[in-house]
Amino acid sequence: MLRALLFPLLSTGLALAVAITGCSQRQPAETSQSDPAMTGHEGHDHQSGGEANHDHSGKSRHEDALAALSPAERELAEKQKLCPVSGEPLGSMGTPYKVTVKDREVFLCCAGCESQIKENPDQYLAKLPR
Description:
Elements: H1 2-21, H2 61-67, H3 71-80, E1 97-101, E2 104-108, H4 114-119, H5 121-125
Antiparallel strand pairs: 1-2
């Protein structure tokens, strides 16, 4: 008789415990690769909304990053505007990263883009202003 009562009680308790706690396995975050320029560029976050934490001194973080360049380099970076690999504005991720590709000085948003531009220079140089 004890067995007849114990089994249904334990079964009900186990089912209740599972229902309350649910599945503890985490689902992977959904990622979007809709921008072809971002393919293979997962080493860092370009979509963090970095301008959200800003001061009100009149200068943007973007301007501060460009100000760290020499006047000649700043002029080139301002003319180029965007990283040819990621499509991000230069200065949006800190001081632009300068590389020489096919005897041309190019600014990138970060060092993480260097390997891609060196692997496919023609593809990315075509995106730059002349």
